[in-house]
Design a protein that fits this description.
Elements lengths: L3 E8 L4 H14 L4 E6 L8 E8 L14 E4 L2 H6 L9 E5 L6 H4 L8 H11 L2 E5 L1 H8 L5 H11 L7 H11 L5 H16 L2
Parallel strand pairs: 1-4, 4-5, 5-6
Antiparallel strand pairs: 1-3, 2-3
Amino acid sequence: MDTTRLIIVAVGGQGNLLASKVLGEAALLSDIPVKMSEIHGMAQRGGVVESAIVFGDAQSTIISDGEADVLVGFEPSETLRALNKCNPDTVVITNTAPLPPFTVGLGIGVYPEIDVIEQQIKNKTARLVSFDGIDLAKKAGNVMSLNIVLLGALIQSDILPLTPESIKKAIETTTKKAFVKTNLEAFQLGFEAAKRT
């Protein structure tokens, strides 16, 4: 089986680890070999959280610079920061709603313009799917469903060997019962948004 390498980057609290768990569960339900690793950093203090997920036959979860087939970013500047993992064939999916670090609030840092971030990504990769995922999560009924919105966009891109049905089943089995309906709606909104970009 061909190998597909996925990097997911987020800020602590955005649900990166749950998104990874849903993808891993969907792969297991589909009998697709999967390996995962995570870097938590200072996640509880708003630091970066990065997941590496490799689908198919691979010996390692390490995704070196230039090796990612797809990059999913929950926060635009974190997406930009992970651009070194991409190559000219990489597809990038990113939320465009910023979550600036505290240094910006203190006036000692500057947050890059979203259109500048998008252009830098477009210059280095094959395709960019970008939209306000926070807005769609709110429409689904819970701002915390951003992670599932972005999974919808990821699956619509047809890069991973996973079906929408396998993801929906994984959402039902890995998320709390109280959030299943909202998360399924979030998944669908992200799926539809990716069709339009």
